[in-house]
Amino acid sequence: MAYILTHAEFDTVLQRLKQDYILIGPVRKKNKGKFSDADLITYGQIESLSDLETNGKSQFSAKETIFPPSQTLFYFTEDEYREPKFEPQKRIVFLRACDFNAIKRLDLLFLENGQFVDAYYKRLREKTHFFVFGCEKSYENCFCVSTGTNQCEGYDAFLNFKGEKINLFPSEPFKRYFAGYEENEDILPQFIERNHIQVDIPEGLSTKIYDHPYWDQYGKRCIGCGRCNFSCPTCTCFTMQDIFYRDNKNAGERRRVWASCQVDGFTDMAGGHSYRKQQGERMRFKVMHKIHDFAKRFNMHMCVGCGRCDDVCPEYISFSQCISGLKGVVAHDN
Amino acid sequence: MSVDTKKIKKNAYRVTKTRGKTCLRVRVPGGHLPSQYLEIIKEIADKFGNGTVHLTTRQGFEIPGIDFSSIEMINQLISPMIVGLEKEIGVPLANGFDKGYPAAGTRNVSACIGNRVCTMANCDTTALAQKIERTIFPNDFHVKIAVTGCPNDCIKAHMQDIGVIAQVEPLYDETRCISCKACVKNCQKVATGALTMGNYKVERDPHRCLGCGECILKCPNAAWTRGNKFYRLVIMGRTGKRNPRLAQTFVQWASEDVVLGVIKNMYKYIDKHIDRTLEKEHVGYIFDRTGYNEFKNVVLEGIQLNPEIRIATFINFHGSIYDSQIIFENVTKA
Fold first, then answer.
1. Which H or E run contains A240?
2. A141-169 burial, b for 16+ CB within 10 Å, e for fewer?
3. What CA–CA distance (Å, rounded) separates A137 from B224?
4. What is the CATH classification number for the domain harbouring B52?
5. In a designed cystine with B218, which of A76, B182, B256, B331 is the match (CB 3.0 to 4.6 A)?
6. Which residues of A fall within a CB distance of 8 Å from B216?
7. Please, which residues 89-118 of chain A have a Cβ atom closer than 8 Å to chain B?
8. Domain ranges of chain A
9. B234: three-class secondary structure by DSSP
């Protein structure tokens, strides 16, 4: 059962939702791309449906709405500390199916990974609702069908844009915002069913692959910029920064900030040791986490096949081709 | 044979080494043209020239080996190109577009490949060159102008009477900065060292910043994004027999309106001060006579300056001095 609304009608619904929620989604920022006269599609607040960018893939994912790039954990003075006053407003985040599946991975990492629940994540997460919109087409580098993340359930609403009309599938709590419209159409949510790229994630990966010369090509090609990690909807690594205010060194704050396993410094330890010095080793670490290590703990692959790492790599390194190539290596070595 | 050499020179033909043969100089404002026009160049070269074409340093074409008697015919043949590359961009030609070029003194406004192709360019250099062309062509004064997209200055703006170097104001969102230092390391290695780290965030010295946009290109997380476009004007660079020298900065962080206004006013300055006893006088030598302040006063007259602009208080030109009495010792001991 679905509501079928015109864009204007759905805008009316959005205005009702805005009474109770901040609306966040992919927006097109004119001329904010890294290259001159190019746009940046990224997450931002939306006021009406026309702000929502559904035609292109966003460079950054929805993860930053619940896991910001930089977050103050507490302020400290000589003998006491205090958490920031933080009362997030209720929000609705618009995102695609792959990104919604990525949120499930974030939940596992921050809420169900060992015995500690990440309170900073939890309080933002609890205030956040997700409206998933179906993809009208598969974009370059997408391989969500291969990772099984083209479909999803458990959303707060689902949208299919159909030209002039939008098929809407709100969950029960959100149906009241659709009051006055008929929910009568016997149709189902439609997900993208085919990508240009198919990836067959290899089974039987093991530590045997660690020293394989397969990774050497990435040692030569990768420049260690970290774009793949920062654009990735499932990368959750962070580091801590203690800042001492310059005009009073006895006061400061502790921040947690996104970190990248491809960027220098990630494995630095006291004494000057560093685990993974070569970019090839760092690529191996990232790939293994995405398609092997994570699944050992959580029974699903971390990668959701959004292909953003391919989209943003300035050296044209393809994650999906790396995985495909790895299958050949595993087959040969086993 | 009777040829009015002054007339044909103004028509963009020249007296050549071969008696009876001339050579047509074709303008390509901004150095980027639809490929269809290459067929016209080819036709003229094959039918009326010697089957060769010279690519000029100013991004035009010279078609040599043409009989003086063919000039009228060639002016008809080149007409569609003058319409396409001059009329279409708004250049007014009082005598129509089928009589060849009406002036040759002000040279083709050249441009680097710009942001239509280059990742580093901060503007569409061809489009700006075309706006400049519209402002100053046709004109008999001998002036050389070029536009380059970044301080790498591939078009050699520093060798022009006015060189336009595109700038971008980098905007920093510290909440997106993840302290990877990519921008800082790069600025210190390839630019001016305007960026430093302080308390895990980036600090920018606006007096050192060239507006090259490298920080934006290097940032993996869009903490640096593009602000407004600005331009630096370098002036009175030249080659030649008397005192070749690189152009020096006149204004920086100037708006496009200021750039076009200054260029327009420079023709008033030339008109006011040119030595009319000479066949032609190059603006750089006029500048040497009048001094910087007179130039500054005339070219800035009536111009609405944007608030960000910075204007040179003085200019110290360097360059080769060829006076052999001063710098070359006679070793033969007369």
1. strand A238-244
2. bbbbbbbebbbbeebbbbbbbeeeebbbb
3. 31
4. 3.90.480.20
5. B182
6. 34
7. none
8. 2-333
9. strand
Per-residue pLDDT of chain B (334 residues; tens, 9 = 90+): 899 999 999 999 999 999 999 999 999 999 999 999 999 999 999 999 999 999 999 999 999 999 999 999 999 999 999 999 999 999 988 888 999 999 999 999 999 999 999 999 999 999 999 999 999 999 999 999 999 999 999 999 999 999 999 999 999 999 999 999 999 999 999 999 999 999 999 999 999 999 999 999 999 999 999 999 999 999 999 998 888 999 999 999 999 999 999 999 999 999 999 999 998 899 999 999 999 999 999 999 999 999 999 999 999 888 777 766 656 666 776 5
Mutation target among B119, B174, B221, B224 for the A interface, most CBs of A within 10 A: B221
Asked, for residue B324, whether it belongs to a domain, the answer is: no
Which chain B residue lies closest to A246 (C-alpha atoms)? B199
Strands A91-95 and A128-133: parallel
Contact B175 A69 (CB under 8 A): yes
Give how many domains chain B has, as a whole number.
2
A237 and B CB contact within 8 Å: no
In a domain, B214, yes or no: yes
Helices B125-136 and B256-273 cross at an angle (nearest 10°) of 40
CA distance A44 to A258: 18
Does the residue B319 lie in any domain? no
> In whole angstroms, what is the distance from residue A115 CA to residue A125 CA?
18
Q: A59 contacts in B (CB within 8 Å)?
A: 222
Distance, CA of B54 to CA of B39 (rounded, Å): 15
Cβ–Cβ below 8 Å for B124 and A37: yes
Q: Which two tokens stand for residue B27?
A: 């303008």
Q: Which residues of A touch B256 (CB under 8 A)?
A: none
